[in-house]
Structure of SET domain-containing protein:
Amino acid sequence: AKSADPTPTRDGARRLRMPTQLSTLRSTAVLAAGTVAVALTIRLLQFYWNKRAQPIRSWPHGVEVRASLIQGGGLGLFASRDFAVGEVLGEYRGRVLSLLQAHRLEDRDYLMGGFGINAHVDAKFAFDAPARYVNDNFDQTRLNAQFDKDKSKKRAMLVATRAIRSGEEIYASYGEGYWRARGIDPATGYQLVADSER
């Protein structure tokens, strides 16, 4: 290892320059930069989490829209107060379409049938209808609501099937037909395998 060179100072005295001082300064700078990076990362995560927890939209009767707890589930409907069994959580309504119009739709994710052969409700643009935000859950024990359809009014009411606590996400079954039409097993949530592929 190379020893430190004596360096003359203003008064002519010779002092040893310590090469370790420079490496210590570098280490301190790197440590400080790392600490700042960690602190920024923590702040960004806190911001993201708070943003995720913030309601995007809320209704005075006690429900709100936030990011779903289901991974990849998009938005979801949450209770912002406690609900008892049988309480109405929201309404599902939208454009009423004939069978032919419904068949021609490219995006059928918000299409609800069961109102009659020529009465299908498309809630894609019914942003003020809370029930359009509800997600299904393949874990049947997590379902806490159901759709009660009113054929005469061409709408469905989302009703609590058990007590729901404030902060819980609301889940209702979309029905087997919805998932089978998308090639998904309604019991598991996995892609259906064709008999020819088994």
Observations:
- The CA atoms of residues 26 and 57 lie 50 Å apart.
- The chain has two domains: 15-53, 57-191.
- Residues 15-53 form one domain.
